[in-house]
Structure formats: C-alpha cells, structure tokens
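Subject: mismatched residue count in predicted assembly?

I count 1210 residues in my input, but I want to confirm that the predicted structure covers every chain. Input:
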Amino acid sequence: MQEKLKEPGSEFKWVGTRPDRPDGVDKVTGRAKFGADLAMAGQLVGKVLRSPHPHARIRSIDTSAAEKLAGVKAVVTARDFKDQPSEFIPAGEMMINYKDVVRSVMAREKALYEGHPIAAVAATSAAIAKEALKLIKVDYEVLPHVIDVVEAMQPGAPILHEDMFTAGVDPAPKTASNIAKRIEFILGDVTAGFKQADVIVERSFTTQPVHQGYIEPHAVVASVSEDGQADVWVTTQGHWIVRAHCARLLGWDVGKVRVTSSEIGGGFGGKTVVYLEPLALALSKKARRPVKMVMTREEVFRASGPTSGAHVRVKIGAKKDGRIVAAEAELKYQAGAFAGSPVQPGCMCAYAPYDLENVKVVGYDVVTNRPKVAAYRAPGGPISEYAVESVIDEIAGKIGMDPIELRLKNAAKQGTKAAYGPKFGPIGMIETLEAAKAHAHWRTPLGKNQGRGVASGFWFNIGGETSVSLSLNEDGTLALTAGTPDIGGLRASLCMMAAEELGVGMDKIRVQIGDTGQLGYNFLTGGSRATFSSGMATVEAAREVMKEACKRAAKLWELPEDAVEYKDGTVRPAGPNAGKHNPMTLQEIAGIAGKTGGPIGGYSRINAAGAAPSLATHICDVEVDPETGKVSVVRYTAIQDAGRAIHPSYVEGQYQGGVAQGIGWALNEEYIYGADGRLQNPGFLDYRVPVASDLPMIDTVIVEVPNPRHPYGVRGVGETPIVPPMAAVANAIANATGVRFTELPMSPPKVLKALDEARAKGAAKI
Amino acid sequence: MRYEAPSSLDQAVALLAKESGDARVLAGGTDLLVQMRTDILDPVLLIDIKGIAELRQIKEEAGGYRIGAAVTGAELKEHPKLMAVWPGVVEAANLIGSTQIQGRATMGGNLCNGSPAADSVPALIVAGAKASIVGPKGRRDVPVEDIMLAPRKLSLTKGEIVASFVLPAKAPRTGDAYLRLIPRTEMDIAVVGCGVCLTLDGKGTCTAARVSLGAVAARPLLVAAAAAALVGSTVDAAALTKLDAAARAACQPIDDKRGTKEYRIKVAGVLARRAAQIALERARKG
Amino acid sequence: MAKHHVTATVNGDAVEFLCETQETLLDVLRDQMGLTGTKEGCSTGDCGACSVTIDGRLVCSCLMLGVEVNGKSIATIEGMAHGDALHPLQRKFIEHAALQCGICTPGVLVAAKALLDKHPDPSETEVRYWLAGNLCRCTGYDKIVRAVLDAAAEMRGA
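Triage response: the counts match. Full output below for your records.
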C-alpha cells in the first residue's frame, strides 16, 4: 500500500502526478548506456595492481619488465602524479583532503589497505594487461596492521600516518596516533540533566563497515589527445567533481577536461569520489590512445569506499512522564586509510529529531587499514541514530510508555534549536509520528514469534551550486539540460516542474544531463539535493523563458513589457490592455524569436539555498525462528516527510530502496576480515544484500510539510529512508525476543547465541 | 586454453586420461567458470560433456532412475515423475544458487566441485544414490557418500568421470527431504544442510533410515547413529530428540565467514528434526 | 591458439563469431556484438544482471562460454520489444516505476519474462523466489514485484 496524507488537489497539473519517466524506454530496452557500455576506437584496457598487504612501506616499484611486454602501451605509478599539499574540499556531504586523495588513488610511501592501487597498466587486451601486472616487482616492507576502530585508538596500535596528531584536542598531542580528530557538540548541561532523570539507560553499540552495494562497478573511458584535450566518459554522481579532481591531480587546466556522465547504475554516495579516472587519464596521455577501465566486483569490495564501522556509546536520561532530560553520545567511527569518516554528520544527526535542552555528543575520526570510506546514503546518520533510537526504545519500555508517544513528547518542531546549531523551520517529525500512530500497521495484532519496532530518523539535505539551461526550440518544444546525474527519476521530476511552470505538456520538453562543457558548475547528485537544487534552477530557468516570451510579445504588440503576462501556457496582454491582442502560445512565440531578438532561453546558475531536513518514522514487524535465530522482516511501513512529492512514485521508490539497504545493514551485511587484514567476502555471495525473497512489500506514506524555501515545497528525500531501519529492526527483535541487540549485523548465529544466553537467565520471550 | 566437446564417454575419458596438464570437466560451469574468473583455476583443457547422451538423460531403470550427471536442476524439476518420487533430491538440486544457476548447474558438478556444503549431495546420499563412474579401466558404481574425501578432494582416479547417478527403486512408504540453513532466503551457500530419508512399515514404524549432514565436516557425512535413532521408532518426539543429539554429535565443523562451530552444531540438530518430520509426512502419503 | 568459430541465433538473427575458450557469452555479447544491454555486475553468477535465455532457459551469461552456444538460440533484452511495441513487462515497469537507476532492469526483465513464459499466474512469493537471483539495490523490489504481477494479469487477459 502506498499512500499520501494529502492527495494533490487541482492546485497542480503535473506536480504530484505519476507520468512515465522520459528515460524509461531506453532503460527497459537496454539502450541506455552505462559506464562500461562505451567503447572507443583503438581503446586500450587498463588494469590496476593492488597491494596484497593491509599495511606496508613501499620500498621500490620496478615496472620495467611490464613496460617491455608486447602490447603494453603505458604504465603509471605514484611518480606520474604530483604530490599535493594538504587542503580540505567538499565531496558530497563529506570533506576530503587532496594530499590524501593523491595517495588514495595511487599509493606513495605506503600501502595502507589491502587493495590499495600500487600501479596501473594499459594494454591492447585484458589478458596482456593482467600479465603485465604480474611482471611488476614491488618491494614491500610489511608492517603490522590494525582494522578495528577501538584497537586503532589504543596507544601502541600500528600508526598509519606518522604526521597525524589528533585535531580538536587541547593541548595538542605530541605523539602521532590514528585519531585524526575529536569533535563535540554541546547544548545545555548534561550532568545537571542526568541528575533530574528518573530513569537512565546507557548502552554501547558496534556496527561493521557496509558497502553501498551498487550493482554497476566503477567504469571509465578516458581519452587524451595529442594537444592535451581530455575526454572522460564515466559512471559518476558528479562529473564536475571528477573534472576538478582529475585536473588537480594531473596538473591540468580544468577547461581542458570534459567529463560526460554515463547513466549511473547506483551510487548511494560511493560514486562521489574518484578511483579509476585519474589513472585512466594518466595512462591515456602516456599511451596516446583511449583507455577503458572497469573494476571487477572483487575490486569494488576490496578497494572502493564502504561506510564506517563504528563503536557508539549512548546514554539517555528521562523523567517518568517521558521527557528526555539529558542525552549523551560518544561516537568512534573508522575512516579507513585516510581521515574523513562521517563522524561529524553522525554527531549532528544523533539527537536531531528531538527538542532537547541538554545534549553532549563527542566524536572521533579514526584511521584504520581499510579502504578510505566514501559517503553512503546519509553518511554517519544511520549509525548514530541506530544507537539513539534503540536506547529511546529501551527507555520507553522502562517507563512503560508507548514508543511513539515517547517520541512525540520530545519531538523537534519548528523553532527547535538543534544541538548542532540551527533553529529548525517547519519540519515533519510530529506529522510522521502521528501518521505512524494512526496507521493500520501499528494496530495489527502480531503472530507467534513476532515483534514490532518503531524508529524515527533525520537527515539534513543540502543545496549547492547548480546550473540548468532551458532552450525554446523553433517549433515551441524545449530542450532542458541539467547537470546532476539522474540516479533514479530526476529527469521526470525536472520535466514535470518545467511543464508545470510553462503550462505545456511534458512531451514537449526533452531533458538531458549535460556534460561539463555544456553548463556552468554543478555540485554532485548526493545529499538528496538533485530534485531540490536542479528543480529550483529549472523553475528559475523556466521563469526566465516566460519573462522573455512576454518581452517578445510586448515588442510585437508594441506594449510596455509589464503590460504582458504569461498565463496557462500562453502570453497575453494584461490589465487594461487585456483582449487587445489574441494570446500567443509558446510555439507561436518561438516562431517570432528570430525577428524579435534571437533564440529564447533561460539559464539558471545558483547556489541553491534553503534545503530543509526530512524526518521519518518507520514501523517494522519481524518473525524470529527461535531454534535457528533467523530473522525475517514480515511487514514494513516507511513514513516520511517529502515537503512536496513532485513524482510520488519516485519518492516512494527512495523510501523503499533506503529501507531495503537498512534492513540488509541490520541483518546480514558486513565486511569480514581475517586476522591477516584481508577481506574474506569481496563478492555478492558472502556480502549478503537483501534479495527479492528476503523482503515483504514495503508500504510507504508520503507526508507533506512543504519547505517554504523551495518554489514547490520540495525537501530532499533520498537519504533519510536508510536512517531508521536498523533501529526499527533491532527494536522489533527486542520486542519479539526480549533480547536487545547492540551489535550489527544481527545475523542468525549472533541472534541464536544471544537468545540462548538470555534463556539461561530466564530473560527470553521465545 | 583448449576446449573439446566429445560426443561419447570413451572420447571424454580418453581426453581426460591423457592430458598431463590441468584438464577440467565442464558441465554447467557454475563453479568452474567462477574459479577460472577468480584465478583459482587455470586449466589447459576444458572437456564439455554436455554432448554425451548418458550424461543428459533421465531414464527409468530397474524400478529406480538413472539420472545423467549433467542434467540441470531445472530439468530435474521439469521431469514429470521425478519430483513425486524423490522430492528431497529435486528440491535440493533446486536450492543451489538462483533460477539462473539452476538453469545450468548439475548434480555431477555439485558433487565433483568437492565442497562439503554442496546442497544436492546429502539428498543423494540419503536416497541411497550411487555414482556411476566411467574411466580408463571401465565403469564402477560407488555410493555417493564415498566420492568426496575432503574439500576439493575426490576418490576418483585420473581419467574418471561421473556419468550418472543411479537412484534405487523406492520402497513403499518412503519419504525423503533436504533442508538447509542460510542467513537469507536464497543465494547463500549452506551453513548447515541435512538430508533425511526414511521408510515406514504398515503400522507407521520406521524400518529404515538414512541421515546425511552437509557443511559440518570436511565432507558430507552419512550419520549412522542419527539413522539408528529413528529406526524402530514412530519418529515421535522422543526419537526426534535422540536424532537431534546424534546429528549434533556427528558434526566436526569449522568457524568461517558463514557460521561458527557452535552454531552449526546446534542447527544440525534442528534441521535433522525438521527434515525428518517432512520425510515422515511424505512417507505416510506413499 | 586458434579461436572457435561459433554460429548461433541472437534475438532471432543468425550470428557468427570467433572467440577464445575462456571468453564468456557475456563478453561476446557486449564486446563483439555491441549488445550492451546485458550487464556485468559481478561475473560470478551472484547478481543476475547478465541474465539471458538460451533456447528459452534463463541463465547467467557470465557463467557460459561463448563456445558453448554453438547452434543455440539466445534472447537478450534487446529482443524483448517487438518493433514499436514494448513487451507488457517493459510497459508495466515504466508504469509502476519499477526501475530507478536501471542497471538491474534488463536482467530483471529477461528473468521475469522467462517466469511468465512458463508460469503465467505466479503468486507474489513465486515471483520473489524466481527473481532472487536478480539483485536490485535501488528499489527494494516492491515495485518490481507489482509490475510483474500486473504484467502477468494483463498477459492472461485478466
């Protein structure tokens, strides 16, 4: 069942309806071209030599034998990339440092994780490229490694970066450690707060790194011609970002590099950074031929960023009436081989759904010998909010209060000051809780061995730099070019907003995602910003077209410009001049464009501001097999505030997709490392994402508390859905079994073990 | 890498026997191609046996069935009679992988890949299946439980190929079942697998039983003590409790990325009970 | 080492190609024939993005060698529509928004068609288990299952 709390009235013609997406036919016929689907004449195959050691000093690399192999046209190592000074720049919602980026794409002094690129070759065939890799001689000095976040923080742990001195600590430490920084967010006085509490619950939680799990591996085709012009075809969430990183790492002018984003087969944050692109460009330059590089699935797991594993301690104090009087959290997130885990957004989100006076959240960013983490859908949020929502559930149980009521009692609303700084505008926390309370799911009786859990979630959403171009073709149709790659229905939404503004049919507007040479800067698709930002820019561009159309008609009619208005898809004289001339359609305006001044278009270049958070409440029913510990999710309802759902089907799709990933994270997904620091499950066989038979239908409810700062009230929705599921599932399991799980994933061996231990103490319900 | 597609068993055996390098039999390819792709294997010769009649046919024989070693799981399921006679075997073969995998995977490959977690093997063992092996010295029939010795190690000698599986005539009031425990609902390698086949007399007493466990030792086990727990009983609660204990006692599992020792032991007992109950229902019906 | 000469049919058209022993059918379809609709997600048979049918049988093309399809009839996503007319499954996928990024979509459609060709009236559970070998990371499978059931109903004339 998919529902909306408010059905679209006659207010809009397109917005809120469910038309076919414009890129749908290409995708269901196999015509759409993804990263690995392009071939360029004369292209070479590029392959990467990767470190087999999780931690090693690189004494020397000898590529001479590889270079001599027939069919090998280029070999690159760190020597081919200039070192970079330390400088932090945004990558989606996280920050990265170019000094680290240049080392991440190609190891310099050290191999810092198993899978770390050491060298790359381009050859006339995959077989020759593979052979060439075998001929590269690397002299490693193997070092002790550390892959657990808590272990990495201990004094005496193997140190990854000898120049890492924990930032945010006063006085600054004098010895290097693996703790890149310490941060804190404080509101009020938690010590005083805890003194007022009638009940206090303190728990520690552990989560494992999980991968974004996109089905399409990283793929790129790069071509550098003799005059230094470079073309890149790549599956990415942000081609301007790719351009920026590559230009920087290779020392080229940004304008020399043109990046085209292919269709993208999933990203979820994992395709907001570069891996193969700089390597392919460097190889292409050396070989003077195009180079195609595609990661194998094994490489995707060994060498592309998962999200952090973490250790989280949460302590919450509440009064008997449910009011939370103090909330504390300590978050230790692992960043992988280079600093930059999402511990900061994790800290910021932890208590954001609630209106609290006393909050203290402390976070540590810790490096470990694993691939550098990349953003994963609401980076940092699911981890901290899993812990907080679990403890809130436990508090509800202790004071005998309904878990939805407890959340309502403390819900953030307009005017609430969040612990991380801002005062909220209108937000939908209360609305999603009320909708959950009223939903049939909440009232349905449970069966044997079943339990029900509820959890809420918050994500900020961002705006950012955006450029959109809208051209009126000579026959009145339109060409809309946006720059944020379409991961899941964006083109439909943009087309709908443009159609709504212009009063024309959607079939008159052809949408495409332009390359970096066709538009001004566009920040990437991530942070749930594409519909919001490109939508805002689309509306602005459409309004420019309408304004220009009025100007041209005014010229034709010899009226002042402000005497002409655009209404219902036509241009007509307004006010006292009404009726003096027949209205003109956009098609007719297009017909006179040339003689009234030239082609008509709108070009919007903005830094979209006013992005607003999206809140959610989820309800989950599980069934636990008491003899095997296997957990099945038997019913799930995701309720979330979309602000305004432009295309409800694609909003529902975001809710359902995030839920599926959250369930996988809760039950079965994890990186499994051996004591040797090597990944044991780099494939979809043993990295267990949910399959179709694992899940029930995922019911959704779209709540709409419009965002006043967007022309259509849009809030980003893509990330919030992954935030509540882990706690919703854990709370449901606790409800079914009487056992609370503080370690993810809650896989059958762990569940059975915990059940048996609880049974021995008489504490199990099944 | 060479590829040959012989049309007779003799040709296939000759190719396999005379190759000095690593020669591999190719049936469904669902294990072999993965191992080639991940550089575990680098054969010099692939011998595609799918063109050999015996390996691709299902024939009734001596009241039972001779199932070609290269018949796919999907074909087993589509056979008009096999599912009714040996549901445990057919279901087991169709638990392997996905619909796509079942379109190619074969019981011959599942056995000869040499994984202790192979799904079809415990089911074949409890059905009393024999592997009909053809080699340079001729043909020999070997109980399936004697084929796998250890992970990746078979009792076949150089040049021998499993040509078919012979399932005996099924005694009246016999039922077979195979269950496995995996963390998801599909697509996983068995953490524990258990096959049970039992026969009842007219009064509902179990007169014969076989119990086989997969993924709990270096090879699939035929557990005599577990069978003994059922024989002479009406497969009542007491017998099932004894069965559970006997199954657990037989396990020699490892800790790995799919399960812990203690988990495998516990679940072996649980699955043995559950599989026995299904086998019992099937035995009662026919 | 001489290559193998293979003749087969792809989407009803006769084809001929040369391939080395270890080239998979997936490699041949994508790199030699330019049929890039079939995708490579894992190359170990775990994701289903490479699904095709061989003589009507649903398989992973990453687990078949090019040389194995001699004389066989292969159907890929590119052959699913008939001229201008999309297959009901293709239409229903668009209608139900059963795709987001679209990378798994060709494999899911080929698999779903193989299901409905054999079982025209599947239950929700049967659809889910049949499609268990097709991973989707975007949709959570809900709209995919609804689209398949709706297409099945339409094809039955229900």
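Chain B is about 35% helix and 25% strand. Marking this ticket as 'not a bug'.
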